[in-house]
Amino acid sequence: MARRDIPLTNILPNLMTVTAICAGLTAIRYGLQGNFEFAVLLILLAAILDGLDGRLARLLDSDSAVGAELDSLADFLNFGVAPGLLLYFWALSETPRLGWIAVLIYAVCCVLRLARFNVSAKSGEAGEDAYFVGVPSPAGAMLVLLPMFVSFAFDSAPFHGHLLSLYMAIIGALLISKVPTWSFKRLHIPQDRVRYILVAFAFAGAAVLTYPWITLVVGTLGYVGVVIWSLVRRGRG
């Protein structure tokens, strides 16, 4: 039986997903060691890779069932497990019982959200609308990490453990909610405005490199505004 070789480019998306998994696991390690800023940056790296691997797979026409399952497992680790643990190591260990309950609630909500999305994708229901049902898991991770962004940006002490526990549980509820959240994948840019988008992207990149935590605070709050806007717009429609 002849051996079937595949081009290296066909596995590049899966290599990116595996790299994202390694970033998420390493973030947990640095969280245990108390290096929270670097741990959060690794979660952000995982989010960037998550946004690129699927698009690269479609560009290279290398979509596969294994890649889809691997991507879902990576999402659960990077956006359902790692952010909750980082928040627990950072501030919730002061209220270990309530804090751990919040971590479990968030993680379970994340895996339920991913399971719902996978079922919708396999049945062909996903991707037909310009809105997600509930907050996507990468966005949920950024929302959960927002208190850390704020603390790093303004050099403030961690928030109270009880408040953080409630906050994390609320974000978990948003993951499995019916709240419509706008999908940026459906965004189309007029050709004559592409240059402005490129300039805005360069500005955002420079802001992240110069003032990373303030930029992340503004960006996350901006996403909250987009969710509220889409909710109002969808309700009026």
SSE arrangement:
Blueprint: H1 12-32, H2 36-59, H3 65-90, H4 96-122, E1 131-133, H5 137-154, H6 161-175, E2 180-182, H7 194-210, H8 212-236
Antiparallel strand pairs: 1-2
Helix pairs in contact: 1-2, 1-3, 2-3, 2-5, 3-4, 3-5, 4-6, 5-6, 5-8, 7-8
What does this molecule look like?
This protein is mainly alpha-helical and 237 residues long. The protein has a single domain, classed as CDP-alcohol phosphotransferase transmembrane (TM) domain (Four Helix Bundle (Hemerythrin (Met), subunit A), Up-down Bundle), CATH 1.20.120. Helix content is 73%, strand content 3%. The protein has eight helices and two strands, in the order H-H-H-H-E-H-H-E-H-H. A two-stranded antiparallel ribbon has the order 1-2. The chain is globular and about 55 Å long. The N and C termini lie far apart (58 Å). The mean pLDDT is 84.
